[in-house]
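**Backbone shape codes:**
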Amino acid sequence: MAIGYKITVEPVLFLYMLAVFMLYPALQDLIYTKVCLQDFAKRICHDLYNPENREALDLVQTGSSHWVLGSTLMLALPSIVTAQFLGSWSDTYGRKIPMLLPPVGAMFASLLYIIMSVHLYQTPVSLVLLASFLTGLCGGFTSCILTCMSYVAQVSSFRTRTVRVGILESMIFMGGTIGPLLGGWVQEAGGRPATFTVIMACHAAIVIYIILCVRNIPP
């Protein structure tokens, strides 16, 4: 089979986006819970939607939105800088190392989320900023998408490139469809630690796949 038709980095992008879309609702729920426990008694947090706790609910929603915004910024700003660096690196030395960095950073972030979930009452909510910064520093989903697209463009022929890029783009939508459903099911079955463990396992699988199955092709 010609190289243009071989599966190359499609599993990388699918697993990464699957993990990303599993993460969003789980992380927001974790932030929501930790903000409440930080400011209110456990009994109030367990019955937060009681009309008697309306004031507490408003404060928790406001505080959570601030932490979610901060987390988004800590992810986005470093990833912009890193994406520029990784783009130049991949054009010179190949795509494999830049492709490895985003899942490695996400693995460390997932480990922090697991610790925050297990030690729910002992860890500060501010750790989400560190986790997001680590993800962004390693490129985040932006660098993952760009390196995968660049790799496919490099290994495919002119005749098959459009189809290959289209298939690769479909991995984003597949991950976005399955991720929230799988994340909700895992959290319902095993709780937050299980969800973040599955997310970390996805990123670990990406790292192993890239090391074993993705060839570094010089520019």
Summary: The mean pLDDT is 91. Residues 8-26+75-213 form a domain with the Growth Hormone; Chain: A; fold (CATH 1.20.1250.20). The chain has one domain: 8-26+75-213. The helical segments are 10-39, 42-46, 54-93, 96-118, 127-137, 140-155, 161-213.
